[in-house]
Every structure is written in structure tokens, then in C-alpha cells.
Amino acid sequence: MNEALIKYLLSLGDTSLILGQRLGEWCGHGPVLEQDIAMTNISLDYIGRARLFYQYVCELQNDGQNEDQIAFMREEEDYLNLLLAEYPNKDFAYTIARQFFLDSYFVPLFEKLSSSSDERLSQIAAKSLKESHYHFRWSSEWMVRLGDGTEESNRRIQEAVQHLWEYTGEMFQYASYENDLTQQSLIPAAEILKEAWAFHIQRVFSESRINRPSDGWWQTGGKSGRHTEHLGYILSDMQYMQRVHPGLDW
Amino acid sequence: MKDQEQLLKEFQEKIDREEKIEPKDWMPEEYRKTLIRQISQHAHSEVVGMLPEGNWITRAPNLRRKAILLAKIQDEAGHGLYLYSAAETLGIDRDTLIDELLSGKAKYSSIFNYPALTWADMGAIGWLVDGAAIVNQVALCRTSYGPYARAMVRICKEESFHQRQGYEILLALCRGNAAQKKMAQDSLNRWWWPSLMMFGPSDKNSAHTAHSMNWKIKRFTNDELRQKFVDMTVPQANVLGIKIPDDKLQWNEQRGHYDFGEINWEEFNHVVKGNGPCNRQRLDDRRKAHEEGQWVRDAAMAYAEKRSNKIA
Asked: Which residues make beta-bridge pairs with B251?
């Protein structure tokens, strides 16, 4: 069994699920109805994506576990999502900046993965890529709108970018399982992704009067199970039903 | 120029011929007002209705249910959008309508002033609340105002899917263990009477029924629709094996309908007036979203203006 592949799939699945969970928190509270719909729509794509990754994990492990046991019965340290995904929504600017950073990563990642020699992974990536193109268009348009809107929106989006920047480095600092998969030629090298990511970031920043923060210390650990304080709360909400009533059908 | 009386006569004849009234047609001011009130109330209900269900997105018991619930609530938001658009064809804008909701001037369905306490409530809301809404809305697909009738056709299709998903949630609970079954019964106990209240005051006390019937905005009275809902829902509860909390509920062979107990109209009136368990909470949530979204809407407007200046 390819242990590295399983961890990688979990990591992608967990980032998708946690981000989907965060976006779902906006439901009914968005700044305007159209954007409420947009955020729950993206949330739905991410939940769907998490399910595809987890289902693949279940098939590879072939130990009778199902997607829900993966999502609801693991503990914080078993979760391998990017820290950025668990960052609180805070306000619309933080939500947009978080989304834009992740979309700018997922588009090149899924472009590469859709031609991975692992057929199943390439199928999931191809489906996800279509969605991520839409997400990227949405988040990058909002980056520009907020950056080049009013003084207040510029200040807010600039602050969000500044605060979230330290979480972006984690995408390109590969965990050991990612390095293994790069050697197996199943996933792209981090440098390739970083270059594509930086290109998207630069283009959108320059259109939107947003200054690129300088690179410093990166917050990392999510991909190896060390999280921020936020994840515990996300899981205690999300896992509540399965923890109180384990093993039932719903 | 035709006088008012002649216009009114032609208007009524058109309605009697079952022709739709369209936005540019002449209509009596009272007809316009009634429709704005009813359509906006309906739109607000869709939007406020997102809150009790949205409350369970982060806690849905499995991934499949989470995805279905998200999609369902998104549909409700979409209904809100078409309905606001339908109301706008009557010459009022969405911002004004939203201000009326937030100031408490406009109403929304009182049902959403009840709390969604357990996962089973996602089932009960779909089954009973969307079920009651369908009974109302199927009748509205033939309402005399064209844009409203057309919006309803689409909404009804989605609502009937919502009702099935709610029923399916309860079916899974009723086939489950004792705790799950108890949860299902408890949610029926709490949602049954408020669902019957969704049809509004009884005919003898309904302020709007007569006019609305004449103009074919409404096609059935509140009590007729309520009866229809009860008749449809009782057998479904029997299939689930949970008990409707009404000792007076029984089949009346003579009438060919179920008889049922009296609604607690005192509670009904209090909730309509703003004293339901969640009235304040729901409006506070909507106000907060609106206020916190102001800078976002301002930014979008400012940006759009800059763009159009550049193009011009």
C-alpha cells in the first residue's frame, strides 16, 4: 500500500473539508444574497471534493472504513490540512484573501495532478480543476474589487493579506509524504507550484492596489498534524453528532 | 382616457378570463400593494428561513447530509432572489424591501421564529415546513400576476425535492435506534402546530382573503389549504410511525377529511407580533449580516463606478 499517497489524499481531503466547513459558516450571514450563495456553493464543491478524496483513501486502505469515519472519528493530530484552511472567517476580506491564496494554489496543483500517472487521482483533479477555475475567478475578482473599491475595503483586504501571508508558505514546504510522491513522479514539485502561485498573486495584487507582504517566517505544521487552536473548535462542532451517537445511520 | 371604473372593470374581466396580469399592465393600486406585501413577505421568508437550517450545516451528522443541506439552503437563497426580482417588477427595489424587513415593518413566515434544536428538525423543516409551503405555493402557480406565477412554478419543483429530503431524514431516524426515534418524535411535537399556523388565521379572521380571492391572487382560503395539508401529512406520519401531537385528530368519514384540534391562536398572535422564541434573534442576525456587509456592498459599488468611468 502506498502510505505516502494515502497521507497526501487525506491532506487534500482535510483541507477541502475544513475549508468547506468554514465557508459553510457564512450561510445566511453573507454581505449580500448573491455572495451568500457563492460562498455556500464553493463550500459545497469543497465538501464534495473531500468526499472524493476520502472515498479513494477508503478503497486504498480497504479496511471497511468509510468516508464518514475518516471525517468524524479522527482527532486533531490526525488531520493533515493546511493551517490556512482553518483560519477563522473573521470578515469578508479575510474570507476572500484566504480563498484567493488557496485557489491560486489549487488551480496549478490540479492542472498538474490531472495528468498524474495515478489514474484515480488524475480524475479527481480534473473534476476539481473545473471548480477551482470558477472559484479563482470569483476570489480574484473580489480581491480586485476590495483592493480598488473604497478606502475602507482597501484597508481591510490589505490587513487580511498581511495577516494571512505567514500561512501561505506551508503550501510549498513539502511534508515527507509529499517528497516521496514527488520522487515517485505522482505529484508536481513544490517549486513549480510556487512559481505558478506567485504569478497569480502578483498579477492580482498589481491590479488591485494591494501590496505584497515581505516573506518572513512561515507558520507550518498542519500537514503533519500540528494545528492552530482553531481546529479543535471546528472538529467539536463538526464531529458532535457522530461522537454523541457513534456508528448510526443518518 | 379611460376612467378608473372602466379600467377596473377591464382588469377584473381579464382576471376572470384567466389571463395573467403583466408588469406593464394597468392594475389597481391595492392589487399592486397586496402583491408587493405578499411577494416580499415570501422572499423574506426564504432568506430568514436560511438561518434555522444554516444553524446545522457545521453539525450535520455525515458528509452526504451536509452536502444535501448546503444545496438545499442555497436553493432557498435562490428563491429569495427570484422573489425579490418578481417584487421589483411591481416598481419597488430590493433595498427598500430589505429595509422594511430589518426595521420590522415587513413580515416573514412566523415558522422561522421557532428554534432548530436537533438534527431531526432538519427533517421536520423539510417535511412539514416545506410541505406546508408547497400546499400554499402549488395554488400560487396559477396566481393572476404573471411574474409571481412563473417564479412559483420553478420554486415548487425545488420545494418538492426539499420536502422529500426532509422526509427522508426522518425516515432514517425512525428506522434507527431509540434515541433517533425519540429525536424524530420530539421534532414532530414541536413543529406540528407551528406548521399548521403557516396557513395564517382562520377564514373568519383573515383580513386579506376576500380581496385576494376576487383578484385570484389567492385561489383557496387559509382553512382549505390547511385542511389539505393535514389530509396529506397524516398518512405520512403513520408511515414514519410517529404520533402527531393532537388528540382530536381523527378521520371524518362524512367530510372525507381529517378533523383536527384548535390551533393556539394566542401563541400565533404573539409570535406574529414579535414574541416568538427566535424573533429577536433572527432579525438581529439579519441586521448584523446587513450592517457588516455594508462596506462590501459599498466597495463593489465604488469599484463598478470607477470601471464605468474608465470605459466612458
From this structure: B258
B250 DSSP β-pair partners: B259
Indicate which of B66, B101, B281 best probes the interface with A, i.e. most A CBs within 10 Å of its own CB: B66
The verdict on residue A135 lying in a domain is yes
Contact between residue A193 and residue A105 where contact means Cβ atoms under 8 Å apart: yes
Task: Tell me the chain B residues in contact with residue A234 when contact means C-beta distances shorter than 8 Å.
Answer: 58
pLDDT in tens, B213-271: 888 888 899 999 999 999 999 999 999 999 999 999 999 999 999 999 999 999 999 99
Task: Tell me the sheet residues that pair with B21.
Answer: B145
Number of domains comprising chain A: 1
Phi, psi for residue A239 in degrees, rounded to 5: -90, -5
Query: What residues of chain A lie within 8 A of the CB of B70, using their CB?
Result: 24, 27, 40, 43-44, 47
Task: Find out whether A250 and A80 touch, Cβ atoms under 8 Å.
Answer: no
Compute the distance between CA of residue A237 and CA of residue B246 in angstroms, rounded to an integer: 35
Task: Report the complex ipTM.
Answer: 0.97
The dihedral through the CA atoms of B69, B71, B75, B77 has a sign that is positive
Strand partners, B258: B251
Residue B86, helix vs strand vs coil: helix
Range of the domain at A25: 3-212+220-244
Q: Do A41 and B61 touch (CB under 8 A)?
A: no
The reported pTM is 0.96
Determine, yes or no, domain membership for A236: yes
DSSP code, position B257: E
Smallest CA-to-CA distance from B221 within B242, B243, B205, B245 is with B205
A250 domain residue, yes or no: no
Any chain A CB within 8 A of the CB of B210?
no
Contact call for A29 and B80, based on CB within 8 A: no
Residue A114 placed within a domain: yes
Closest chain A residue by Cα to residue B48: A28
B257 forms beta bridges with B252
- State the smallest CA–CA distance between residue B173 and chain A in angstroms: 7
Q: Residue B171: helix, strand or coil by DSSP? A: helix
How far is residue B180's CA from residue A117's CA, in Å, rounded to a whole number?
45
Spatial distance between the Cα atoms of B200 and B209, rounded to a whole number of angstroms: 10
For B160-205, how does the pLDDT look when each residue is reduced to its tens digit (9 = 90+)?
999 999 999 999 999 999 999 999 999 999 999 999 999 999 988 8
Q: Does B306 touch chain A (CB under 8 A)?
A: yes
Amino acid, res. B63: L
For residue B310, name the pLDDT band (cuts at 50, 70, 90): confident
Bridge partners (DSSP) of residue B113 are: none
